[in-house]
Design goal:
alpha/beta
């Protein structure tokens, strides 16, 4: 889409701002010990259906000189995987496999013209992904995002090192500080810039977390609606202006109206009957022998990314997908979204004491992956908003703070986003066994770091200590308790937690006994090669109450 969208007349409307924030995160999944690994497909699917299409949106907006604003949070684990040579090579193999399947589908559907038209669409889709990835950006998607950040229209921020759920790690402030500081250091090393905004994993906040963020140089973060509405002081402007946590760090709250329009399972845009049906995939529908080369071990059915049906409706046979109709509906929904934001701003202007900001945070993977037309919808929203200078104005939360510093001091309430709005999804009967083990390992790591302070360590001992610190961080990822609760890949999540803790325990005992097996240590470094600049001494500094900046020894 390169032409301009129709202009809507908002000349008589009140000014107000819209900030769209996409949070891009996947757990660290990398298995060089295997020739291929199913869970690595999580990354490959997101790259193909979300990250590459999003880059395409940004490239088109840049080519058309569209004055948009968008915030993108990139998690350190995702950044590490996007830059990993092994995963880059495997992704190219994945794309070529999908291209081969699309070619086969064009032949198979030769007597079904409507299906063959879609098979050709998927061939173009995969070819475009391959061209963008390999030719345009030389397998470096981070470079693409950095290019758009340099224009000033895309703001990049980050999150905790391995997306650790901070409210439940707060038994140890050291654990929280290392999640925050290691994440920021990794982001800064990869992008060359220091983030001013921070995405709290799962929007998980507890009173006092703002102190850790301030020490790390963070100026703002996000909470769910009730985090601000239930703050220590009633917010004068509701969720439509940030509050100052008392130390110069601002908390922005999610707008429930814009969230409901996109997220609601029943009323949200992605459930429209014209959109592509995510759960209808040829990997589950075609003859096992035919599809065998493109599924897991030739036996276990998985998504291939080739889907021929639309949502259609509840309890109805799925009808064939019509891409033109779906894209037209995405444009209609973009118009509806912008129109509702403007009417919302009109209402708010009578009750708030400053130009309101509507904060709309979403998981990035919703756009393109779960909601195939979502990136097109986003592009339409950004174009429509940018073309109406007297209507809804796009802004980043960082820029809003420069224009409208918080006028109210309050402490947000402990909160998360998602189911029930607190911590219950991350600690319950399915996953509560994790936390005593995490806390015990954290205590042992802190004591180990204190005990070796001042000693002259060999390079081998230093490597082992740093690898132990990596194992702790990887075990703390919020993804594993989330999966255990959701009931999807339970065995894998269970194994990831227990494996990382077992690796930590082995390294801890080896260091204590000064019997470090260099061969085994090297194997662990190859398997878990994230955070190359990690320094175990940070566990010693923060346990002493010493405040340190990311990257400082």
């Amino acid at each position: 889409m390169t032409k301009s969208l129709p202009r809507t007349d908002y000349a008589s409307r009140q000014p107000g701002f819209l900030s769209i924030i996409l949070h891009a995160h996947l757990p660290y999944v990398r298995h060089p010990e295997h020739d291929s690994f199913f869970e690595e497909n999580w990354l490959f699917e997101a790259m193909t259906e979300c990250y590459l299409p999003l880059i395409g949106v940004l490239d088109r907006l840049h080519a058309d000189n569209v004055d948009y604003r968008l915030t993108l949070s990139l998690s350190p684990t995702l950044i590490a995987m996007l830059r990993d040579d092994l995963l880059q090579t495997r992704y190219l193999k994945y794309l070529h496999s999908r291209l081969e399947l699309a070619e086969k589908e064009i032949v198979r559907t030769r007597k079904q013209p409507h299906y063959q038209k879609l098979a050709r669409l998927y061939r173009r889709f995969f070819l475009n992904a391959l061209n963008t990835y390999q030719e345009r950006y030389q397998s470096d998607l981070l470079a693409a995002f950095k290019k758009h950040q340099a224009t000033g229209k895309l703001e990049l921020i980050t999150t905790a090192a391995t997306h650790g759920f901070l409210p439940l790690l707060n038994v140890s402030e050291t654990a929280v500080r290392n999640q925050v500081n290691t994440g920021i250091a990794a982001f800064k090393s990869a992008t060359g810039c220091t983030p001013t905004g921070f995405w709290l994993p799962e929007c998980g906040y507890y009173p006092g977390l703002e102190t850790v963020l301030a020490d790390a140089g963070i100026k703002y973060f996000f909470v769910d609606t009730h985090g601000v509405m239930d703050a220590s002081q009633q917010p004068r402007n509701g969720v439509y202006a940030p509050i100052d946590c008392g130390n110069g760090v601002a908390a922005f709250a999610r707008d429930p109206e814009s969230s409901h329009q996109v997220w609601s399972a029943k009323e949200g845009y992605p459930g429209d009957f014209d959109y592509r049906e995510y759960y209808s995939d040829i990997g589950f529908e075609l003859d096992p022998d035919y599809i065998a080369p493109y599924i897991l071990d030739g036996k276990t059915r998985i998504n291939t990314g080739i889907k021929y049906h639309r949502v259609t409706g509840d309890n109805l046979p799925k009808e064939i997908y019509n891409p033109r109709q779906a894209l037209a509906k995405a444009y209609e929904h973009a118009l509806d979204f912008i129109d509702k934001r403007q009417h919302q701003i009109d209402r708010l202007s009578a009750t708030v004491d400053r130009p309101p900001i509507i904060v709309a945070p979403y998981d990035a993977e919703l756009f393109g992956h779960w909601w195939f037309e979502g990136t097109h919808w986003l592009e339409c929203v950004l174009r429509l908003a940018s073309e109406n200078a007297n209507g809804v104005q796009l802004i980043s939360c960082g820029d809003y703070l420069k224009q409208q510093p918080p006028a109210q001091i309050a402490t947000p309430a402990a909160s998360t986003w998602g189911d029930q709005g607190y911590s219950s999804y991350w600690i319950n009967e399915t996953n509560d066994w994790i936390y005593p083990l995490l806390h015990k390992a954290e205590q042992e790591m802190e004591k180990l770091a204190r005990d070796v302070r001042g000693l002259t360590l060999t390079p081998l001992q230093t490597r082992a200590l740093n690898q132990a610190a990596r194992s702790i961080l990887l075990a703390q990822a919020s993804d594993w308790p989330f999966i255990l609760k959701s009931g999807t890949t339970i065995d894998y999540a269970n194994k990831r937690v227990t494996d990382h803790l077992a690796r930590f325990n082995y390294l801890h005992d080896s260091i204590r006994k000064n019997r470090i097996n260099e061969r085994y240590l090297t194997a662990l470094e190859i398997m878990d090669n994230i955070f190359p600049d990690i320094d175990f001494r940070n566990y010693s500094l923060s346990s002493l109450g010493v405040s340190f900046k990311p990257g400082r020894l």
